């Protein structure tokens, strides 16, 4: 039987549904490592670094000013953490083999660990592996699973640069619509004065930069200077895709070939019969309504990049953001504004290395007062007596809990 014939022979309800057959197929794919062969970003240079920084509105001079970067301890430009999303999330093959055709995916968590800087002149490659498959029942939809992939990032010397445990809720498309969890949320509107206030807060962002932050000077309980993003527009989504790529947005023969390879990636508009990418949920009200959303919404990865942006602003050039772990607990709809905040929760110093570590909480809070991105981070800071050692830096070995 041909592939097309086999597809037609399957029960119609399989598309968009979580079935035992589909889960069994996924279980067979567990713990098999695959290379990312079609990354959006691979070569680290002034252009790609700027694109990744602009994708999230990050104006840290360590990333965008070659002269500033040359005078830093790195000696050259450093890529922001958003660059790594361009290696995997924005690639054309990260989702190959995801299984469960038509079952919607909602980005739910990223746990990043950063070991080495990504520097101008580097070449980054990555691998992916399915490491988690957990069934859940939630308020948004009926049957759902949490699917977790592990990504590993290496430079041209095969040194481990970073890892990421990236999780997504896979939810049955119709169940989300029937649940109507978000149906009562009204579109955000603002007065002219409120928009001006938000603009003022966006403009007041503080980048620590070349002014060192020393471990001794940090107090438990002190707040981090927040970053503000919003009101969210379609242009924000476009900026994100321009910087780190898109898994589904393709044109011409590439789009035709993609639909032939994976027939369900194109969703036909009921009024025009034109095929559109499933990614339309981020800018198209019709597509968002199909999965039970009152409006289009942001990319989870975009929000996750804001979290690391908060921490690199705070750590400064001489610090090192070693871990960021965030969850996407709610939706950031078009028109919403998010204040990404943090506070110091703990500090310790490793007895052997002398590295001073700081643990922080992270909260992304919208204009309704809802925390839509809780999380945490670990930052390594120099002391007044000692700079940070050479990389890699691995706080997992020195988490202060022993």
CATH architecture: Roll
Structural class: alpha+beta
Give the termini separation: 59 Å
Mean pLDDT: 90
Cα-atom radius of gyration: 22 Å
Strand content: 25-35%
> Shape from CA axes?
globular
Features:
disordered N terminus, Thiol Ester Dehydrase, Chain A, 10-stranded antiparallel β-sheet, alpha+beta, 402 residues, two-stranded antiparallel ribbon
What are the SSEs and their pairings?
Elements: H1 3-9, H2 20-27, E1 34-35, H3 46-54, H4 61-64, H5 66-70, H6 82-87, E2 104-114, E3 125-137, E4 143-154, E5 160-171, H7 173-179, H8 192-203, E6 223-229, H9 234-244, H10 252-261, E7 266-268, E8 275-277, H11 285-290, H12 300-315, E9 320-327, E10 338-349, E11 356-366, E12 371-381
Antiparallel strand pairs: 1-3, 2-5, 2-9, 3-4, 4-5, 6-10, 7-8, 9-12, 10-11, 11-12
Helix pairs in contact: 3-9
How does this structure look, described?
- The protein is of the alpha+beta class.
- The chain has a single domain, classed as Hotdog Thioesterase (Thiol Ester Dehydrase, Chain A, Roll).
- Helices cover 25% and strands 26% of the residues.
- It contains twelve helices and twelve strands.
- The protein has helices at residues 3-9, 20-27, 46-54, 61-64, 66-70, 82-87, 173-179, 192-203, 234-244, 252-261, 285-290, 300-315; strands at residues 34-35, 104-114, 125-137, 143-154, 160-171, 223-229, 266-268, 275-277, 320-327, 338-349, 356-366, 371-381.
- The strands form two sheets. Strands 1-3-4-5-2-9-12-11-10-6 form a ten-stranded antiparallel beta sheet. It has a two-stranded antiparallel ribbon with strand order 7-8.
């Amino acid at each position: 039987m041909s592939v097309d014939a086999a597809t037609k022979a399957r029960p119609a309800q399989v598309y968009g549904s979580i079935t035992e057959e589909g889960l069994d197929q996924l279980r067979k794919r567990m713990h098999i490592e695959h290379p990312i062969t079609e990354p959006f970003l691979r070569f680290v240079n002034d252009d790609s670094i700027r694109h990744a920084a602009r994708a999230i509105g990050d104006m840290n001079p360590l990333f965008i000013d070659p002269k500033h970067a040359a005078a830093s301890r790195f000696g050259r430009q450093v890529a922001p953490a958003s660059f790594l999303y361009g290696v995997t999330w924005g690639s054309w093959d990260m989702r190959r083999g995801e299984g469960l055709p038509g079952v919607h995916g909602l980005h739910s968590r990223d746990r990043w660990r950063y070991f080495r800087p990504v520097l101008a002149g580097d070449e980054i490659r990555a691998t992916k592996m399915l490491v988690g498959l957990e069934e859940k029942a939630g308020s948004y939809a009926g049957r759902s699973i949490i699917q977790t992939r592990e990504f590993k990032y290496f430079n041209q010397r095969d040194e481990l640069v970073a890892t990421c445990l990236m999780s997504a809720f896979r939810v049955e498309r119709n169940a989300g619509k029937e649940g109507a969890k978000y149906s009562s949320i009204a579109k955000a509107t603002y007065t002219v004065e409120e928009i001006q206030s938000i603009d003022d807060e966006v403009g007041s962002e503080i980048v620590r930069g070349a002014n060192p932050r020393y471990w001794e000077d940090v107090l438990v309980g002190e707040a981090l200077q927040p970053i503000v993003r919003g009101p969210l527009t379609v242009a924000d989504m476009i900026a994100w895709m321009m910087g780190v790529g898109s898994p589904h947005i393709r044109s011409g023969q590439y789009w035709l070939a993609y639909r032939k390879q994976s027939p369900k990636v194109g969703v036909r508009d009921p009024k025009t019969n034109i095929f559109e990418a499933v990614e339309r949920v981020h800018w198209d009200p019709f597509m968002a309504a199909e999965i039970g959303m009152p409006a289009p919404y942001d990319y989870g990865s975009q929000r996750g990049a804001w979290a690391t942006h908060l921490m690199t602003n705070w750590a400064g050039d001489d610090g090192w953001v070693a871990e960021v772990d965030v969850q996407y607990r709610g939706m950031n709809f078009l028109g919403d504004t998010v204040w990404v905040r943090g506070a110091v929760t703990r500090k310790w110093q490793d007895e052997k290395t002398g590295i001073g570590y700081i643990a922080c909480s992270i909260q992304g809070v919208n204009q309704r007062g809802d925390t839509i991105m809780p999380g945490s981070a670990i930052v390594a800071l120099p002391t007044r007596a000692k700079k940070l050692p050479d990389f890699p830096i691995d706080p997992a070995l020195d988490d202060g809990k022993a």
